[in-house]
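User: quick one, sequence for these tokens?
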């Protein structure tokens, strides 16, 4: 019986945290506000999370898992065709940027609020950014480039830029811009490797 109750309450807390942290920022949202949105109590909150930092880490890990599943699915769907995968990623990013309430990358936002590289929040951010680099390296692996790591680093930089541009610029244009930029980076790397 306890496991049945804990799962949904934890999920409600994470859902509330996801909505509030993304919309208003990590530092601006109090634990009390998350508790209120989740419809629970402080006692129940502290049964699931020992601190706000622990909730922040869980929130970011949840967001990371969602991103990873989507990117892994795109890479799998592309089946070694880098351009097909990049097009899927660009289309998804463009669609996401046009959704109401889009505030860019939750990891970039978190890093801005938690500059200390030893904080638990930054550890999750850095781990996820490293994952992005490895995902892009897996993506370009079929091309047998001379320096796939450098290309992956360039693609991470473009991904960072598209997330910021989607929030600050014209979101209807970011998907196409991201795709053009990725194609330029990959094409230059292919020519250099030939």
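Assistant:
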């Amino acid at each position: 019986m306890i496991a049945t109750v804990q799962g949904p309450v934890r999920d409600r807390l994470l859902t509330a945290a996801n909505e509030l942290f993304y919309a208003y920022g990590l530092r601006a949202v109090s634990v009390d506000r998350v508790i209120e949105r989740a419809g629970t109590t402080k006692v129940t909150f502290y049964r699931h999370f020992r601190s706000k930092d622990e909730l922040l880490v869980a929130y970011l890990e949840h967001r990371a898992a969602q991103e990873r599943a989507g990117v892994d699915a795109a890479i799998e769907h592309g089946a070694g065709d880098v351009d097909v995968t990049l097009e899927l990623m660009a289309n998804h990013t463009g669609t996401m940027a046009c959704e109401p309430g889009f505030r860019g990358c939750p990891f970039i936002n978190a890093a801005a609020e938690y500059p200390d590289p030893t904080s638990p929040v930054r550890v999750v951010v850095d781990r996820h950014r490293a994952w992005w680099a490895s995902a892009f390296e897996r993506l370009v692996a079929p091309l047998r480039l001379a320096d796939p790591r450098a290309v992956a680093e360039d693609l991470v930089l473009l991904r960072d830029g598209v997330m910021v541009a989607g929030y600050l610029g014209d979101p209807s244009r970011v998907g196409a811009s991201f795709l053009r930029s990725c194609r330029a980076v990959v094409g230059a790397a292919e020519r250099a490797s030939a």
